[in-house]
Amino acid sequence: MAKVTEVARALAEPIAAENGCTIWDVEYVREAGTWFLRVFIDHEGGVDINHCEAVSRPLSDKLDEVDPIEGSYTLEVSSAGIDRVLKKPEHFAQFIGSEVEVKLYRPVEGRKDHVGVLMAYDGGNVTVGLAGTETTFEKKDVAQVRLYVRF
After folding, report:
1. DSSP state string for 16-33
2. CB within 8 A of 2, min separation 6: which ones?
3. Which residue, among 15, 16, 12, 13, has the nearest Cα to 37 in the 3D structure?
């Protein structure tokens, strides 16, 4: 049986494409006793509320029709955000040369958070340019990588 996120992605992709969007990620998580199906979309030039609505309404109808999820849940369709989490190899490839924040499970050099330029991604290992040197964090040590935004 396919995972909820895989089924939701398969249903969402053509709807997103019809509206000039792509699916960045899909999450199915339980928070404070409520299940959430979150679909993160992307659009060249940015995502606005109209894009979210254009994907959300038909996706909700399609999910009701196919009914792949037992019980109740809340559907959320939103932008992946400017500080989006990088999860897939294609995400990393798209943002080579961009500034990222790497969050680790255990401290390295006394810190769990490291900000630098994404240099490479290889099988889950992340190489970041930090203070003039390249540092590679192994997949097993990396909790999360997201784009870093400076204000």
Report:
1. HHHTT-EEEEEEEEEETT
2. 10, 68
3. 12
CB atoms under 10 Å from CB of 88, counted, come to: 11
Could you tell me if 75 and 39 are in contact, meaning their C-beta atoms sit under 8 angstroms apart? Answer: yes
Q: Which residues of 113-135 are buried (b: 16+ CB within 10 A; e: fewer)?
A: ebebbbbebeeeebbbbeeeeeb
pLDDT digits (tens, 9 = 90+) for 62-108: 999 999 898 899 999 999 999 999 999 999 999 999 999 999 999 98
Q: What angle do CA 109, 127, 23 make, to 5 degrees?
A: 120
pTM (2 decimals)? 0.86
Contacts of 140 (CB under 8 A, 6+ apart): none
The 3-state DSSP class for residue 78 equals strand
CB–CB of 108/137 below 8 Å?
A: yes
Instruction: Give the fold, CATH level 3, of 4-79.
Output: GMP Synthetase; Chain A, domain 3 (3.30.300)
Specify the CATH architecture of the domain 89-147.
Roll (2.30)
Q: What is the token pair recorded at 44?
A: 């060249």
